[in-house]
Design a protein that fits this description.
It is a single chain. Helix content is about 30%, strand content about 25%. The protein is an alpha/beta fold. An 8-stranded mixed β-sheet has the order 3-2-1-4-5-7-12-9, with helices on both faces. α2 links the parallel β2 and β3 (about 45-50).
Length: about 200
């Protein structure tokens, strides 16, 4: 049995959770704020932990048993959530198998053209927070992959274009379901260890 922890009950996080619970050998835990809600069918199939994601205590139970972690957090203050998560991991000496982080294109100033950041009013601060969150992941001592999609849409999934770190990334849009499929594949099968990938 493989244990997966998904941080954030975003639409993308719930999509990944659905793909994981379809596997017979999976146990899925979801850690999210009390403000967000899981779809009823999903809530019946996962173990939920709710709390303040900037507090260490919110992660302690969920991170036991060497889980694979996918952070589906978006928006501001992801860095504060990661500080709390890694404090919980460190203070309890919890071993994580793999960590996959959803970030955003633009953190490496790699985007050509204008990229949309829906819901973000201070793009400079948002990107700084994403950079710091990625630094926390990089400094942790387990395999990680950072996913940097361009602007997400609700369109059906398509074949992704994956661009490795250091290459330029064209501004544009990518389906949330496309990114969820990439995230799920990496969470399950690994690969791309210690890499940051743009998804178009």
């Amino acid at each position: 049995m493989t244990t997966y922890v998904i941080v954030g009950a975003t639409a993308l996080g719930q999509s990944v959770a659905r793909q994981l619970i379809a596997r017979a050998d999976s146990a899925v835990r979801m850690v999210h704020t009390a403000k967000s809600q899981l779809a009823a069918d999903l809530a019946a199939q996962v173990t939920e932990f709710t709390g303040d994601l900037t507090k260490e205590a919110s992660y302690q139970e969920a991170l036991k048993d060497q889980p694979i972690v996918f952070s589906a957090l978006t928006g501001m203050d992801v860095d504060l959530a990661f500080e709390a998560l890694f404090d919980a991991q460190y203070h309890q000496r919890l071993q994580l198998t793999r960590f996959v982080m959803l970030s955003s294109a633009g953190v490496d100033q790699e985007v050509t053209g204008e990229l949309d950041y829906p819901g973000i009013t201070d793009v400079k601060e948002y990107l700084n927070q994403q950079r710091y969150a990625a630094k926390l992941v990089d400094e942790a001592e387990f395999p990680y992959t950072i996913l940097r999609p361009v602007t997400l849409t609700a369109d059906p999934a398509t074949t992704p274009k994956i661009i490795k770190e250091g290459a330029t990334v064209p501004a544009g849009h990518v389906s949330r379901e496309t990114v969820a499929a990439v995230a799920t594949q990496i969470v399950i099968d690994g690969g791309y260890d210690y890499q940051s990938l743009a998804i178009c």
